[in-house]
Protein: Chemotaxis protein CheW
Amino acid sequence: MAQNANDTDRAQHLSFSLAGCEYGVGILKVKEILQYEEITRVPSTPRSVRGVINLRGAVVPVIDLAAKFGLPETAVTRLTCILIVEAVLDGQPTVIGVMADAVREVIELGPDDVEPPPTFGTQVRVDYLLGMGKVGKRFVLLLDIDRVISADEKEFAAAVKEGLPAEVPAAAAVPAPAPETAPAA
Structure:
């Protein structure tokens, strides 16, 4: 009987790699996994907002977690994917895409498999973490996706959801890259 009670306390997480580290997000937050597709850049958005994609007629903002964590933007490879997750925005569920280098596996963790987040040594702010999952001899940083998405990103997602132009504070905005031009002949 004790074994059955312990099984109900176990939670599943989707693990993925990003900039050489392994992260996990609660499986109930993940709606689907997409192979990387072209993302449409949107001018004057936070550096972490890579742009938007068309998901069956809906405009979905895509966040680059590497940029969010202060690292170089995620390089696109054949394994790059977009996790479609549901984050809570002002009490309402909001669909957002999150870039990942590659999806790893679904892991199941019980309460004894999760350690408190470290106070140092990670590229991620401690308040973004639910803990560190022990999977064999490795650790997976478990993200609190609702906290990872910042106020500026939530504002952009809300504007996209309502179909309005996104107004982002100037301090958080990054100009769109200038188009490359051919050298003069």
Observations:
- The radius of gyration is 18 Å.
- Helices lie at 2-8, 65-68, 145-148, 151-162.
